[in-house]
Design goal:
about 750 residues; Methylamine Dehydrogenase, Chain H; 43 strands; PHTB1_GAE_dom
Length: about 750
Amino acid sequence: MSLFKARDWWSTVLGEKEEFDQGCLCVADVDNSGSGQDKVIVGSFKGYLRIFNPHPVKPGDEVQPEDLLLEVQLLEPILQVEVGKFVSGTEGLHLAVLHCRKLCVYAVSGTQGNVEHGNQYQIKLMYEHNLQRTACNMTYGPFGGVKGRDLICIQSMDGMLMLFEQESYAFGRFLPGFLLPGPLAYSSRTDSFITVSSCQQVESYKYQVLAFATDADERQDTEQRKLSSGKKLAVDWVLNIGEQALDICVVSFNQGVSSVFVLGERNFFCLKDNGQIRFMKKLDYSPSCFIPYCSVQEGTINTLIANHSKILNVYQDVTLKWATQLPCIPVSVKVANFQDLKGVIVTLSDDGHLQCSYLGTDPSLFQAPKVDSREINYEEMNAEMKELQKIIREATKTQDILPESEKQRGVTVTAEVSPDLDEESQAIDSEVKAGAVPSVTVKITIQSRVTAQKPSLAVCVQAPLAVTCDQFVFDDLEPDSSETVVLSVFLKENCSPPELEGTCMVSYNIPTGIPRVSQCNFSLPLKLVCFPAQPSKAANHKLTIDTNKPPISFVTIFPDFVDPSEGDQANALGFHFLTGSKTTLLASKTSQRYRIQSDHLEDLWLVTKELIHRLEEHFKKQNCKDFACTFSGSIPLQEYFELIDRHFELRLNAEKYQELLSERAVQFRAIERRLLTRFKDKTPAPLQHLDTLLEGTFREVIALADAAEENQANMFQAFAKLKSATHLVIMLISLWQKLSTDQLAILEATFLPLAEDTQEL
């Protein structure tokens, strides 16, 4: 924000809810008064044309009625107003007004008033051109080096330059490679038109080249263009600026040297006549409009640049000389000379705020009032401080949005898994082919220290495990109350689970209405999915886990799987999974090693995990802190990749079945429509075996659905096996490389992101 504000010399607000843009403002001695005093010409999109002659008695005065010389409503929106020598036979200035489909040139004149009401001004239409194309903007100048008159060039929305030699239409030319119209300016020194194309490059076209190029009216098709006698329109020079331009201005303050100024969205360029960059300035704001206005020092040019932060910056080449605050965002800025003041800055905003201002500062006449000195009462201040601290403490104490620590949590949930299997199995609808599927009881207790509204409990275990009931809803819990539920977990699908864990989650609302969640995890026993069996000597897959302690008897670490009568001699243990596969665990009598072996890679996971977990628990009870397990064998990657390939193949099959089902369903509906048409017909036609075709298609749909269902079941089993094998590979890598807990968590997050297998994930 600027320290200094633009000093308001004269300002007004134009109309009600009118809109203005870049070309709607012009300053010139439009009535040819000869005094050198500029008038302010403003046109609006509502079609109002206004001409002002500001002359306040003192700066900042209200607008006087005589300041408005002329206000007239034209029938069409005004896109641009310009003042120049547009009428033949006279070098007087005339006003050109550009509408969407029309160009009008007016003469503005004043009549001396006979009474005190002042002079009367009126406009007279000198000529007009109806345009064949919708106009965008225009520029004017002595095209071709003519003396004493100005010609007009209008750019249409579809890229055609239409040139008018005052009262007559000269010719039209299309710009090559045109997409959207950009700003347009004329350089009298090089007699060329300069614009910025949609390719974000400044392009210059010579007037002579435009005049001799192919006429726009002849450009009907490619063949005619080839056969026509005119030349192809060639660009004089091109400069890539890499951004869209807001405006172009060509100025020549020193004799023999002219500069092309281009205001981009983020940069400000000054170019030589031949398109070379003289200098550029990177802007750290979003500009809205600009004007180069004079050359104060030899070889430099001063420029005003306004931006969307309501700041008007004054630059000498690239050096910022002054910055001033404006009351609104200008879309157009000009510099004018009035009778009382030279170099007035005229700005126009898009909602019609027209202001004439000057730069400078006014001295501040404000004086700070004297502060009444009063003695400080320290006792009152201390009492007030204590009161405020008490309020702050209460506010921070009752802020429910902050997360609570575990000790302060209002509701806690605990899960207790029974050490023994249920005497009478609670398994329901199990697909396991084994004789009796065991279940284990889980007792979940919810304790509340606060009032818990609408508490609900959700129990989740990963398939193929299942629970007898997974959702519970309770009445509101009072403080210091508890609820207990009992449920059973069992193996439902006919495959080994990759994880023997579950989660309990309680969601509730506290009295202030804020939702809360409390959860806990529980582990399930290995004997839920397997039972003791005779060890097997032969196996396809074997793993050896090394430890740094002598081997422990299986009676000690696997009391639930070993018959106590075997004593300490039990160094082999067999696990028979409910799905039918077997895994054997062997302890070396001479070395500190354990071997796990099975016919299937995925069956090694649960036993290996259980072995390491029970060994760690055993040595922790004995206060042995340096116990460690390692793995030095080769990781079974080949077998692991086979499981990945198998799972991928089943996923491809699922997609194939889905496509085939979709095709057959479309075919089935098409045959149904044909049959329905035949049956509705008043004169029945023969079915032509459509009923046979319908029955055959129906059988195919049923067969494909059965195959897709079977593939889905196979894919679920393959996913469970792949997940178990992934767990195993990650564990072997962590034992091999001695990874920390955090590193292991990163590995698991990378390789085990899926909780369940779906086509969408």
